[in-house]
Amino acid sequence: MIARRHLLKLLIGAAICLAGFLVYRSLGRYSLDEIEESVQSIAGFRLASAFFFVILSYLCLGGFDALAVRYAGKPLLLRQTSLASFTALSIGHTVGLAALSSGAVRYRFYTRWGLTGEDIAKVIVFCGVTVGLGLGTLAGLALILQQGDAADLLGLDGAARLMVGLLCLTGPAAYLLICAFVRRPLVVRNWRFEPPAMRLALGQIVIGTLNFACVTASIQQLLASFTDAGYLAVASAYVTANIASLISHVPGGLGVLEATMLGILPTSASIGALVAFRVLYYFVPLTVGVPTLLVTEAYYRHRGAKFLEQTVM
Fold this sequence. Notes:
Elements: H1 2-27, H2 32-40, H3 44-71, H4 78-95, H5 98-112, H6 117-145, H7 158-181, E1 186-188, E2 191-193, H8 198-223, H9 231-248, H10 256-264, H11 270-312
């Protein structure tokens, strides 16, 4: 067990070092003046449409939690799951290690609303599975739907795209089959997962894919000022970059997402689009999420003190 923990730490450390190298190699060739100039060259309507898709993405993320609490057997009002989801993820996206950072924030909210530690663990696992299903489905569809026989921006020809795309879709397909026919929990060593009902599984795939489709649309709107890369090509690049960010464990994937996408979508000015995306998707929600957490903490603390006072009296 101890050796396994050390190995895990070494792997994470190696991933962070690799991420740092990629960031240095891809971003080091840009000066601050060049980045600032490219950000300023993005048209206002592109920024507005990109932010619109960011909002849609966070609404989809709220749907993750809405489905998750139903899976846990503790359905809540939509405004409750939306508040918990946005506050948790607006912080977790930037801090990194989302299962821990956003999980801690979710714990603060959901314990007040009657969920146990086990229920919250189910919510977190369910949301994590939804992320994987969404990434896999979007990647598969993007690769399969790209037309033409020429190699794409990932270096894959038509036949390779089709093969990899189908491989990406086997995960969501297998998940649906498990949910349809397996009636008992899946146990792998100490890990236990109870397959959700079919309607919840379908909801996971749909809303998970819509979330990443909205994120891709936001990036594509910003990149449109600099490159003619189509939506499907950007989707393939974003899925690859997102996976790299998750593996790296760098907080918020800072620099890793940009470095990976620059390698796949090479263009001298696209760094400005990716910096603008980071501001819109990570930093703007963070400036709302942190005050929201502080206000809700103060509100529930005051309500708890008031209830205790009335009880004593």
